[in-house]
Amino acid sequence: MSKFSLEFKDEVVESILKTNCSISEVSKKYGIDKTSIKEWIALYKYRKANGSKRQQTQYDRQYKIDVIKYMYEHYHSVFEIVEIFGISRFSVKVWKREYDENGDNAFLTNGVLGMKKDTNNSSKKDLKELENENYHLRMENDYLKKKWQLIQEMEKLDKKKK
Length: 162
Fold this sequence. Notes:
about 70% helix
């Protein structure tokens, strides 16, 4: 939920656009950071250009990829993307980071603890394989610990004999 109502944001933006007040002046007057005001201006312009009051809050994976690719292909800043697509600055930054880290494999998580979506029920097989590998690694670890213990005991016996 937003800290400020849409009406208040519009009032702040209109005070800048209609009265020649600077962003800095309005920022000081209302106690709001300049970056938020810049985003509000971009979203305001988007809404006015597209006749839309409400922003979409959920976007599909392909749309996110297309927006970020558009941003890179046309050398746009985050604020320009906010103005062009009417998406919040925060969302664009999150999408950009995700895309930078994962490329075309970005946005495959379901949003819950970053877990990948189960697209073909292979996760149960993967889990079973991981459990099996874990079991074998534990067995190997136990074996190596026991071997190390025996080597230590043999060295102690050799020292006692000398």
